[in-house]
Specification:
Strand content: 25-35%
Structural class: alpha+beta
CATH topology of one domain: Jelly Rolls
Oligomer: single chain
CATH superfamily of one domain: Galactose-binding domain-like
Shape: globular
Number of strands: 31
Radius of gyration: 28 Å
Largest sheet: 11 strands, mixed
């Protein structure tokens, strides 16, 4: 997660070819590392297999008596597509190179493979879900196989995973830390679909949607060209990337700071107070303005050096920081990293230090929970080759930044808030593994810009289909309720993002929505009831992929029309009839005019597959339903699936 450290091990390994399994695992490792014992391969379509051998070497592949031959290219890469097979197994898979080298995999199943991805609610493990210990104790199933992809980033698309991966059968030891949503989906699906299931889990808590998309996918959306160019510059020359981004950061600050101050320069402006020791979360300092502060704080320290020290090559270690730092030495940006309490070390460019006082300035941004510089003190130091180490554990001063300043630009190489780097490291190595579908549970981190999300989600689905096949299905989890319920109509970024998810799915014939507006937690961003989420995803999959005529998502609005003194909302996807739970009437309906203040709650009544809103007179032009961060929604159908939030025009 932390980048540009003093020891660029990953780059050095890549330069030496050490990240190619064919170069490290010996001549008997012929297959890409995604292919291992216990793997599940996708049924009913050609099965792509690939790996590395010697340049131009012949390769023979055999699976259950189905044999195909191919030849590697000039770089030693090979690919062979086996014919489609029905569900079954276990089988053995053998790959033989022209040299005689052979690799055999055992216990291979043919079934349906799903990729489960997104942010923290997809990442949340079974061990943190409701009734966890009992669920774990009952999890053994040789017909469910799981594989987890570790957190990783890369500036360019990678062919191999940075950390080892392994296929494992579901069991208490393997399911405890596996994605709860992903596992519960498979468990529920197998109640009706007698087929082996392979689950690939690749998610990252706090991640926006943009880092999960390829550069081409982002370019198709538009508006990312400058950031992508900066990312390309950084991949070729990290020091140049840091300088360019530092200039953008400084320009943002001077444009937004009330006094146009430049805190990173040598002469401090404003009040700088001593940082309490030991270094720790600023919310625990006892300073009222920092007690609930999610935003920025400046940190500053002077370092006195001799001429010999200033002439030495050096690196700056600033200890653990939560969560984003922009760091300057003598007014020159030298690093920017993201991480939750992770340590950072930056190279100090030659000629930047001088004899006498040198100034280290750090802007720390924390957007959630704890924030600040954590130390420990002995880890903060200026390390100078052949000139010793200068401790920096104490003597820091800080300056508060009001939240009204807004949020600074984020570096495009950031893990969870940047562009394309998670896709490059965690999704690209999967290509072109055959998949039946994708489970996508993400959006919380994009609620600050909900108007862009529909286009981004549509582009992500298109992007991944270009890599895994045009018929790749998407099962999208709509965001649940979160926060304090409101007693009056209000604007809501969470509601707007749910609507973006709904519209993206409605415009895609190979996507379905799992509505979760009734399974959230007002005080917990990570509601533990993941069983219901998995069940609704399985319900959507049965409709979309397995021919179940039952609607995928429960009641969905078809249209709103004006009648005499009323508005009628017609619904599709209703099993039986609409019902209102806990009340004679459904709640959460609003009639709105052109602007937000015009919205008002209205009475509603149910008639089989429609809802009647009264009074429907006045300037109303649209209907909103369950439109807030944490709405109370009680409209269902007789299958017990809820009607999801929506906003539609009145015709």
């Amino acid at each position: 997660m932390v980048r540009k450290s003093l020891f660029l091990f990953g780059l050095a390994f890549a330069a030496c070819g050490l990240m190619n399994p064919a170069a490290t695992a010996g001549p008997t490792t012929l297959l890409h590392e995604i292919f291992q014992d216990h793997a599940v391969l996708q049924r009913d379509r050609p099965i792509p297999l690939w790996g590395d051998v010697r340049p131009r070497e012949s390769v023979s592949v055999d699976l259950d008596g189905h044999t195909i031959g191919t030849r590697a290219d000039a770089a030693g890469h090979w690919r062979a597509d086996l014919p489609s097979l029905r569900a079954g197994g276990p089988y053995s898979l053998t790959v033989t190179a022209g040299s005689g080298a052979r690799q055999t995999l055992v216990d291979i199943l043919i079934g349906d493979v799903f990729l489960c991805s997104g942010q923290s609610n997809m990442e949340l493990p079974v061990a943190r879900s409701s009734n966890a210990e009992r669920e774990i104790s009952l999890s053994a199933s040789d017909r469910i196989r799981v594989l987890s992809v570790g957190h990783a980033t890369s500036p360019t698309p990678a062919a191999h995973f940075q950390d080892p991966v392994a296929w494992m059968a579901a069991a208490p030891a393997t399911i405890r830390d596996f994605s709860a949503v992903c596992y519960y989906f498979a468990r529920e699906l197998q109640k009706t679909e007698d087929v082996p299931l392979g689950l690939i889990h690749a998610s990252w808590g706090g991640s926006r949607i943009e880092p999960w998309m390829s550069a081409g996918g982002l370019e198709s959306v538009g508006g990312f060209d400058a950031a992508l160019n900066l990312l390309r510059t950084d991949a070729k020359d990290p020091a140049a990337g840091i300088r360019l981004f530092g200039g953008l950061w400084e320009s943002w600050w001077t444009a937004h700071a009330p006094t146009h101050s430049t805190p990173w320069e040598g002469t401090p402006t404003g009040e700088w107070r001593p940082v309490p020791v030991p270094l720790r979360d600023w919310k625990t300092w006892g300073v009222p303005e920092l007690a609930n502060h999610d935003g920025m704080v400046w940190f500053r320290r002077s370092v006195t050096l001799t001429q010999a020290q200033a002439d030495a090559a050096g690196s700056l270690s600033i200890g653990a920081i939560d969560e984003v730092d922009e760091t300057w030495v003598n007014g020159v940006p030298i690093g920017n990293s993201f991480g939750y309490g992770t340590e950072r070390t930056y190279i100090v460019p030659p000629g930047l230090l001088h004899a006498g006082d040198n100034i280290v300035v750090i802007n720390v941004l924390s957007t959630w929970d704890a924030g600040g510089m954590y130390g420990p003190p002995e880890h903060l130091a200026l390390r100078l080759s052949n000139a010793g180490t200068v401790p920096l554990g104490g003597g820091w001063r800080y300056q508060f930044v009001p939240e009204s300043m807004g949020l600074p630009p984020r570096a495009p190489w950031e893990a969870v808030s940047g562009l394309t780097s998670i896709y490059n490291a965690m999704i690209s190595p999967l290509e072109p593994y055959a998949l039946r579908g994708v489970l996508w549970y993400q959006g919380e981190s994009n609620t600050g810009e909900p108007d862009r999300y529909r286009g981004l989600l549509t582009a992500l689905m298109r992007d991944w289909r270009q890599r895994f096949g045009p018929d790749l299905a998407f099962l999208i989890v709509q965001l649940p309720n979160f926060g304090v319920p409101s007693s009056r109509p209000e604007s809501s970024n969470w509601a707007a993002l749910r609507e973006a998810q709904r519209l993206a799915v409605a415009g895609d014939p190979n996507a379905a929505l799992a509505v979760t507006i009734d399974v959230g937690d007002a005080h917990d961003l990570h509601p533990p009831n993941k069983q219901t989420v998995g069940s609704r995803l399985a319900h959507a999959a049965r409709h979309l992929l397995y021919g179940d005529p039952a609607p995928a998502s429960g009641p969905v609005p078809r249209a709103a029309r004006r009648g005499q003194d009323r508005v009628v909302v017609d619904f599709d996807g209703v099993e039986g009839a609409l019902v209102s739970l806990g009340s004679a009437r459904p709640t959460g309906f609003e009639l709105c005019g052109a602007d937000e203040p015009s919205c008002r709650f209205v009475d509603a009544s149910v008639q089989t597959d429609r809802v009647i809103l009264t009074p429907g007179i006045g300037p109303a032009t649209r209907v909103r339903f369950c439109w807030s961060d944490a709405p109370i929604c009680n409209l269902y159908d007789e299958s017990a699936l809820p009607a999801g939030p929506f906003e539609i025009p009145i015709h």
